[in-house]
Amino acid sequence: MKKILIVLLAITIIVLMFFFLREVFAGRLILKNYIVRIGRLEIRWYSVLIITGIFLSYYIARKRAEKEGVNPEHLDEVLVYGIIAGVIGARIYYVVFRWDYYSKNFSEIFKIWHGGLAIHGAIIAAILTGFLYTRLKKNVSFTFLQGLDIFTGVLPLGQAIGRWGNFFNYEAFGIPTNLPWKMFVPEKFRPMEFRNQDFFHPTFLYESLWDLFVFYALTVYYRKYRKGFGEVTALYLILYSIGRFFIEGLRVDSLMLGNYRVAKIISLVFIVIGIILLIYLRSSRVEKKAS
């Protein structure tokens, strides 16, 4: 009965989302980037969705950690450090590659609720935090690679939810298109070179759906095929980066390094690292069994 109710709820949400997106994508419904406004105080969709993604991912991560014998206090501790480092890293990464703007609007650097968090910066900062934690914390109840697997195993779910913050901000969309699922973007949010275009690729949706697929694939691998710690992380680096590489090519707001899109460069690096790590981990365990 419980499964039936869950399926019915999921179907209801999908149907409602379809009609909602149809109105927004057609331009008949213009979104506001905040849920409620009281004077100058705003509660924005962007912040709420990111927090929702964090808490839902944490809930699943905690369940998995308990099954692996990880001390919940250690998980909570590294999570707090990781979130703080991740937000700072995501913001620094974004600001560095948009310094031409932030150098002239310095106060905007601290207004993260206006958008501008780069996931690659968050990932790198969180991984470094986890590494330092497992090296400096005495009697820690999990290894670095074990902690990474717990983190990357749920990260795509948080990313999938967080991408909808871009939707409400009318950001992270792609080049103009006439495809049936084209998305209307109000003129004030369009880049100057596309001011005369009305409809664009909803790349936020592409990545959200891809992230959900990655989360599902990693969950299946975690439950059925993982032989040791680190493999889920390697697979995440490969799968997420493949999708991000191709989706990034459609976006109009990419962070640039000269003539190259930074996210595509990092994605290629992550794919290579992921492949090497997965091959190393799997082959080393085969060798140990053989010996």
Percent range for helical residues? Answer: 55-70%
Q: What do the pLDDT scores average to?
A: 93
Q: How many structural domains are formed by the residues?
A: 1
Order of helices and strands: HEEHHHHHEEHHEEH
Range of strand content? 5-15%
| Radius of gyration, taken over Cα atoms and rounded to an integer in Å | 20 Å
- Total strands: 6
Count of helix runs: 9
Biggest sheet strand order reads 1-2
First and last CA, distance: 50 Å
The biggest beta sheet is recorded as:
2 strands, antiparallel
Structural class: mainly alpha
Spans of at least 5 consecutive residues with low confidence = 286-291
Task: Report the principal-axis shape.
Answer: globular
Model description:
With 291 residues, this protein is mostly helical. The protein has one domain (31-290). It contains nine helices and six strands; from the N terminus they run αββαααααββααββα. It has helices spanning 2-26, 45-67, 72-97, 99-102, 119-136, 144-169, 203-224, 231-248, 262-290, and strands at 34-38, 41-44, 183-184, 199-200, 256-257, 260-261. The strands form three sheets. A two-stranded antiparallel ribbon has the order 1-2. The chain has a two-stranded antiparallel sheet with strand order 3-4. It is globular.
